[in-house]
Structure formats: C-alpha cells, structure tokens
Fold:
Amino acid sequence: MSITYLEAIREAQAYLLKNDPSVYIYGQDVGAFGGAFKATKNLAAEFPGRVIDAPISEDAMIGSAVGAAIEGLRPIIEVQFADFSTVGFNQMVNQAATLFWRTEVPCPITLRLPSGGTSGGGPFHSQCLESIYAHFPGLIVCTPATVEDAYSMLIESVTLDDPVVFCEHKYLYFHLKAESLPQEALPIGKARIAREGRDMTIVTYSAMVHECLEAAKEMAQDGIQIEVVDLRTVKPIDTDTIIASVARTGRLLCVAEEWPWGGVNAEVISRVVAEGFNLLDAPPQRINAKDTPVPYHPRLWSVHRPTAQSIVAASRHLLRI
Amino acid sequence: MSLTPIIMPQLGESIAEATIIDLLVPQGESVTAGQDIIEVETQKATMNVTAPCDGVIDAYIVEIGESYAVGDVLGQVESDAVSAQSDQTSAPTASQATSQPKQSRQESKQPGSKQPTPAPASAESSFSVVKPTIKGLPVPAHFVGAQYMSPRMKARMYELGLREADLAGIAGSGAGGRLTIQDFEKFLTQLEQARLTQASSMRVAVADAMRRSWTRPLATVGTPVKLDPLLSHRAKLNPKPGPALFAIRALAIALSENSATAGRLIGNKIAHPASIDIGFAVEAEDGVLVPVIRNADNTSVTSMVETYNNLVNSARLRKLPANATGGSIATVTNFGTFGLTWATPIPLPEQTLVLGLGAGRKVPFWDESTSSFVPVTEAQLTLSFDHRVLDGGAAGRLLTRINELMTHPQQL
Structure:
C-alpha cells in the first residue's frame, strides 16, 4: 500500500473531522468537487455539513474563519493556490495573527496553502510565501517535505491553538509516496536531519529537500558527505539543530525555492552568523529562485529555481572558499 | 578520445619556473599515469614532470633550454575520456584550482530538466582537493588561500593561546594551501607527543616582542672601533664606567645631533624622539630586560655610572621599578660580555635602532705612517636599523659618528 503526499493530507483532514467536532473545512470547490487538487475528495459526503464551498474571496474566507474561531470552532481554510492568499493577507496578519495578543482569545485557524512551482504554473500558481507570513509575530508556518510530515504536521497544526499557515508543496502532491502513515512524529518546531554528513550542512525545506538529497548523493561519489537539515517548520526555526549541525561541519549552504530577499535562507544565515560565527570555516551561502516573478514557459521555469545540479555547483563552490 | 594538458607542476617552495632539459618520452609514444616524461631544472635541483594520465603523447609545445612558469601547459596527452576523468581528480595544479569555480557557475546556467538528473561525467566538473605537489612542504606563498584563517580556526587558536606565527611550519591541505581545522588538529596531536616544558612568561613576552619587531625590514651595518683611547681614559676615572656606558653615551650624543635617525615611521610621517633616553639590554633569567638611562645626551659618562649599576642589579633581581623601562628611543646591547665578537641584534618593536658592542680583542692594525702592523684593542660595533626609516648611508654616518666619539672619550 502506498500513499501520496496529497492522500496523506486528505487522511489527516479525515482524521481531524472524525475526532474533533469543532473542525470544518472551508474553501473554493472543496465540497462536492473535492477540491482543486482533490485534497478533500469524498470528505463532504463522509462528513456532511463539515466541508463547505466558499465564494471566490480569500478575504471573506479567512475573515469568516477568524470569526468562527472566536466562536470556538477550528476552521481549516483551503486556498487554491498560495499566490491567491495575499487577497486575504490583511485578515491573516492583522486579524488572525494578533487576535490572541490583543484579546486573549485564541485563533486556532489553519490556512492550507498549496505552494511552490510546477512546470507551466506561471507567476500566480507557483509562489512560495512562507517567509512573508513568518515575518508576522503570532503565526506558525509549516513546510512539510515528506508524506509523513504532511500527515502529522497537519493534524498538529489544527490541534494547536495558534493560527497556522500550512505550506503544502504542489509538486510533491503526486510525486511523493510513502509506505504508510506514521504513528508518531517530531513535533512542529523541530527540524529533522534528513541525511547525515560531516563536510557541509545544507539547510532546506519542502520540495527542495529532495533536490538537496539528490545533490548530496552525487557529491557522495566524490567522497563528500553532505548533511541535509529539513527545517519542517519555518516559524519557529529550530536554530539549535542548525547550529549543532554547523558545529559538526563548519560550512553552511541554505537552499530554498522562494525569492532571495529577506527569506528563510537569509533568516537562517543571520542566526548562524550571529550565534555561531566561530563555528564557520567559510562564509555561509544561499541559493534561491531567481529574483524575478516565476516564469510560465517550462524552459525558463526549469532554470528559475534551484535544482540538484545547481545545488551541486553551489556545494562545490562552498567547499572551496 | 580527449586531450589532457601536461601542466608544469609546483616543483618546490617558492619555485616559479623551470627550464626544459630533456623530453624523456617522444611524441607518439604511450605513457602511463605518473610516468616521468619531461626533465626540468629549477634553481635548486633537476626533477621530472609526470604524465597526468594514461595515453599517448600527442604533442609537446615546449623547447629544450627554454624556461616555463609553474602552471604553464607543456604539451598534451591523448587518452580516452574515462581514464582522463579519473586521473584529473588526483592531478593537483594551480591553474586547475583557479579554473574550477568558473566552471561551476557555468554549470548552473545550463537549462536543467524538471526531474533531478546526475550531472554528465566530464574531466572539468570532477571535484579535486588542491594538494601541495611536494608532500610535506608548505605550499608556496603565492598560492591563493594560504593565508586564510576561518573564524572557526581563529576561535580554536584563541582557545589554545596560539598565534599565526606558531602555525607557520604546518603545511595546509585545504583549498589553495589553506590551513584546515583538520591540519590544525593533526598538528596539535603531534605536538602532544613531543616533550613539552612550560615557557616562562618572560620568554613568551620576548618572543612576542621579537615577532612584532620582525615585521619590519631590518638591516645591519658594522665597523670596528679602536678601544685603546677609551681604555686608557677609563683607567684614570673613578668610578670606572663599563664599556657599554661609553657606547650609550656616544649613541646619545650622536642622536642628539641628528634625532631623525631614531625617528619612528608611522604611515608616511616620521615621529621624532622627545628626549634622548637610551636603553641597554640586561640578561635576566631566560629573557632580556631593557632599563633606560634618561637624557643620556645631557649626562656625562661618569655621572651615569651609579644609575647604570643600580639598574643592572635591579634588572637581574627582576625588581626594576615601572618607570625604569620603556620610553627609550634606541638600545645598546653589549654581547661582548658573552665573548661574542659581532652579532646582528634586533631593535625593540617600538624602536628603529639597536647598537651592538662586541668583545674587545687585540688585533694587528696596519699603521700607514710606520708601514707596519701594530697591535690595537679592537671591538666590532654593529648597528641594526629599521630600513624603512634609514638607509645604509645614514646608518653608516651615524655609526661613523659613534665610532668617532668612542675614540675621543674625553668628549663623552
């Protein structure tokens, strides 16, 4: 039996709907249609009245979720593409994120954002927005890279009383499969060592974890052992695990699919340089998507974001400086 | 089939080029990796360039008797791609090390596929660690990266109280000859196996002063001084000044006439001394102390005697008061007391000059007026100086004046 990343998300939602009556799912086409990516397929039938179609207004979707949360419910909001969530950005960062700080009333909403690029997606179907949500205090931002994490972290996200931005990666939906769902898992906020190594540390998350593992496999042929750290959560960042890894290797490369300015890579490097300067054998490096809107054309898109090849090149460069 | 270049390797410390003596394997013949193919001669020795891989000598582009720089292409070996790639990974050359980063950036610009695929095998993209060509020798100074110390290295050194000078003898195995943390840890393990004794704080302080002094270009000039006038003048004095005092006094007078020679070069300015305070070296335990005679230009030699003797005694007992050292503008060192005839002393790091006085000996001197050798008591005076502040001429003139004063002791 194998289960895809998308099916794990569906299973997690089924589990939540079954075990917590306050949970409901609200999004465009999530009901009878089962969601743009089929993340809620058959759930409306299995849990009548709990999987509700929303109008094309992310502002209204998220705003009403905040209201529902105040009334004691636990909404899961599915936005069809992360790119569209900025239409409801104000509701998320000014209403949801600040509610508890201002009123002591928790806001346990979970915003599911299908993130990241696929070939031909174009500028409004490919964005990675984890860092702009992470910038605001009051939000938790998850970026699962594995089928197991997609399952366990979604369940934990909904269970937490904080507003959570759950950045699931579209490319991984159908490409990533696992044998089974996990019984236990690392908690939200803890990073995972996806691959052990001693020559350099790559800190990454989401779909890029797999590109980095591919790059590490190629570098291993030259006798270079790369340690790959999967952040799993981007807010909060597990600085302890990262620093411990850099203490072992002395070199840091941050890889992310997002744009370069002020992203997760910049945050990680800033922390490592400030707290672990004397652990470094070389200046920390980062690779991101090119600083342009995400291209539509498949040939352009294929060079827009980091790939295993560009990660290998960056790794070789880091080992030499 | 691919052509692998034969590169002039790094043949030894500070070797920049070599002359072709003989082509040992003719064009067209096959060679194995590591086989001697070209005989070259450097300033120091004759040695062989080896084939970079298995194959056939495709061409030599050098001429016998001509010199070529380290890193130059000397010829090509034709080989099949597989053996070229595997052998390139172990071929250490300066030109290969610097060309690799450029290659990597080009790789990242090529359009990749949606699915991750392994990069195509090629000689240029295989990764190689830069190794010193002659094992055990430090990589020559011009190798990029040899001076780099990472924050991690510096922190570890700081932890252990080590300085860069302490690591000067270690060969770096990192990129461009850089000292890696692994080289460093290996050095420390080897160090633990040696017999270690504690260096006194005096020793460490002198070591640090000498290290700082040596950052400047130092030179020495010397001249013999006839001691007979000084010795007969001294016999009439009471108390009797030691020979070093005459040198101190002569130096002080000479500097009062031209203080620029004791100036310090700071940037593009010369800082002139305020008062003519002369220090003198006293051996104490396993180091050197330098007490100071203040205003030595205004104090006669006989007036200095008591001060001098007190300072020497205090120095030997390590009981010098704080104001007795420091602030001198030049130093005198009387190594003649150890029986040494001459030496090249090192000025203190904050001074430009040090005057050395060797042991007096009876030597024959050619007297032109009598056309014969006459016995004289002679000592060697050596003046070491910071060559940024003065040149041989000025140093020579200063030393000549000191010599003149010491042979006219009534002026001291």
In short: The radius of gyration of chain B is 31 Å. Residues 334 and 357 of chain B are 5 Å apart (CA to CA). The longest strand of chain B covers residues 372-386. The longest helix of chain B spans residues 94-109.
